[in-house]
Amino acid sequence: MRRQSMSQIVVSLAAVACCAAACSKSKEPAKQPPQEAVKEPAKEPPKEPPKEAAKDQVEVFSWWTGAGEQEGLDAMIADFKAKNPTIEVVNAAVSGGAGTNAKAILANRLQAGNPPDSYQRHAGLELADDIKAGKVEDLSKLYEAQGWKDKLPKGLLEAITIDGKIYSVPVNIHRANLIWFTPKTLQALGIAGPPKTWKEFLTQAKAIKAKGKTALAIGPAWTQKHLLETVLLGELGPDKYTGLWNGKTDWKSAEVIAALNTFKQVLEASDIKSAAADWQPAADRVIDGAAVYTVMGDWLDAYWGRAKKLAFKTDYDVAASPGTAGVYDFLSDSFTLPVGAKHHAAAEKWLIECGSVEGQDLFNPQKGSVPARTDADKAKYQGYLATALKDWQDPATKIIGSLAHGVVANNALSSEIDTALGIFVASGDSAGFAAAVAKAYAATK
Ligand code: GAL
User: Fold this and answer.
1) Interaxial angle between packed helices 221-236 and 411-427, expressed in degrees from 0 to 180 and rounded to the nearest 10
2) Nearest-5° angle of CA 96, CA 376, CA 325?
3) Nearest of 359, 413, 113, 100 to residue 246 by alpha carbon
4) Is 335 touching ligand 1 by the criterion CB < 6 Å?
5) Residue 119, phi then psi, degrees to nearest 5
6) Which of 185, 256, 344, 379 is deepest in the core (most CB within 10 A)?
7) What is the pLDDT of residues 120-173, one digit of tens each?
8) 91, 61 in Cβ contact below 8 A?
């Protein structure tokens, strides 16, 4: 992961903290009312209702509104409320997978100087943009006070640190490179198991089409980007995939173009012409049996396993996406303390919840992710999550970062890729896409 040097962090709380009371007090001496000749009997001042202690609050911003996402957040909020009964939680979640809508709204709020008290950001270059723009506070002191530094994996800490300062609190680790299916459909189609390579997927896809089904269910643009990342990873391998983000792999090279051609074929085997509105309805098509596979991160385990109450292994199953066995394409949801947060102390308390063992062990089993902390209670992670935790902690696992979920590309590059990908999906011009990304990479690094 590229390390970003940061020249400026503007942490000017003083400028933001305008004391309303002080501002409204006039400095002029109070004028005396004119003396009246005849004094009226003194009236009793009207009795004011007893004042209740003002309730503190914390506004938490995320995109976890949907089935399989909201439950995790709710579990952590409930624990927070039990520990902080005087703080009201304002859940400002905005719907839309991968934060497609939430990120736009957040950008406007940050621009207008009206940040929530804490917002969700992916660890990695997505967060680095906010750090460099001076939008989030250095949390190093909180880390020291809570003893968090020893409780998080070193690589993850690096993804949220710039110039020795730490800027967010990771709640989880998600895995992006997964292909999901139902054993029932595979059996009915006579397919022995999920494809181990994209070539095998394309062979299976032909047979699946002949039987009147769709090989792959897909959703909106961000799910196509998610698929692109897994195809590039599967075709190029982890080192060359990482090279795409550190300049060592040439986007215009023959092998990258070949991988992009594979992606094109994979898309052709999908239902992109009638793509689902989001990742949950795409996943529904697999459960309905209309489609055989979907490529999605492990938040899908929460959707099927918890929200839909399906049984892992019997009702649904999962494998590493083709060509990526032994690789963990990771992303991490983390929470920040924005500069200018209105409820600073309450926001710190929220972050303490996010970084706590209890908070993480309540959140992650519901969310379909493994804990960011290394000392969480393993027994709480069952079914798919037991294998995820084992793979995540296995020293032989190769860990690389997600494109679609903020780890390896900064926001400028990511949005150039979105534009180029939209054109690529419509035109099928692999070389054109590679050239556009190569240019954007050079311009934004
Ligand atoms: C990711 C996020 C996950 C999950 C997913 C689908 O970007 O990190 O926690 O919410 O989007 O919405």
Assistant:
1) 90
2) 65
3) 413
4) no
5) -130, 155
6) 256
7) 999 999 999 999 999 999 999 999 999 999 999 999 999 999 999 999 999 999
8) no
Number of neighbouring beta carbons within 10 Å of residue 258? 13
CA of 167 to the centre of ligand 1 (A): 20
Which residues make Cβ contacts (< 8 Å) with residue 157, sequence separation at least 6?
Answer: 149, 166
Please report where in the chains the tokens 């004119």 appear, as a residue.
34
Nearest CA to ligand 1 atom 1: 98
Q: Six-digit token pair at 320?
A: 């590493």
Q: Is 405 in the pocket of ligand 1 (CB under 6 A)?
A: yes
**CA–CA distance, 41 with 225 (Å, rounded to integer):** 79
* 300 Cα–ligand 1 center, Å: 10
**Three-state secondary structure string covering 332-388:** CEEECCECCCCCHHHHHHHHHHHHCHHHHHHHHHHHCCEECCCCCCHHHCCCHHHHH
Residue minimizing CA distance to atom 10 of ligand 1: 98
Q: What is the Cα–Cα distance from 220 to 382, expressed in whole angstroms?
A: 30
CA of 224 to the centre of ligand 1 (A): 14
User: Which pLDDT band, with edges at 50, 70 and 90, does 48 fall under?
Assistant: low
Whole-structure pTM value: 0.89
Residues sharing a CB contact under 8 Å with residue 78, sequence separation 6 or more, in sequence order:
362
DSSP string, 117-133: SEEEEETTHHHHHHHHT
Neighbours of 358 (CB within 10 A): 15
Q: Is 69 in the pocket of ligand 1 (CB under 6 A)?
A: yes
What is the Cα Rg of the chain in Å? 26
Spatial contact of 118 and 86, defined as CB atoms under 8 Å apart:
no
Ligand 1 contacts CB of residue 229 (under 6 A): no
Gap between the terminal Cα atoms of the chain:
12
| Rounded mean pLDDT, 316-323 | 98
3-state secondary structure of 174: strand
